[in-house]
Amino acid sequence: MTDKFIQWLAVVFILISAALFLLKGWLQQTLGVDFGVLMGGNLALALITLTSYSLGSKGLAAENPNAMVRAVYASTLAKLMLCVACIAVYIFMNRQNVSKATIFLFMFFYLVYTVFETIHLYRKSIRQKKS
After folding, report:
1. DSSP labels for 42-106?
2. Fewest CB within a 10 Å sphere: which of 6, 8, 34, 45?
3. Cα separation of 42 and 56, whole Å?
4. CB 54 within 8 A of CB 39
5. What pLDDT sits at residue 48?
6. What does DSSP assign to residue 23?
7. Where are the transmembrane segments (predicted)?
8. How far is 131 from 125, CA to CA, in rounded Å?
9. Contact indicator for 122, 5 with CB cutoff of 8 Å
């Protein structure tokens, strides 16, 4: 990955983590979120996004244009399924104390990382078309 995706991904991860740390007290008292689960989910989503981006980049390099579309769909679907699996494990482990706010924040993080990845893949495809 010669582009700056990893650096930008680190920035997004740090910004989300910093926001969680700054709002930790409010999130726990007002919404009742599980802070450890959110931090773990943030890290997991960053790693999954990195893997997903590499799959999408390989799809861009393929000669068949359909390969790129398949790679992006497959990576997005895999990321979504992993998020659903993580949520299912969280619910199974904490049946009595499930925080809906934690689940919704986790899905919001999924949305942020997916939009971030898609924008970078789109920009990379535009650059490859020009050259």
Report:
1. HHHHHHHHHHHHHHHHHHHHSSSHHHHHHHHHHHHHHHHHHHHHHHHHHHHHTSSS--HHHHHHH
2. 6
3. 21
4. no
5. 92
6. T
7. 5-23, 35-55, 67-91, 103-122
8. 10
9. no
Angle of helix 65-93 versus helix 35-61 axis, rounded to 10: 170
Could you give the 3-state DSSP secondary structure of residue 3? coil
Contacts of 29 by beta carbon, 8 Å cutoff, 6+ apart: none
Phi, psi of 98 (to 5 degrees): -70, 130
pLDDT at 2: 56
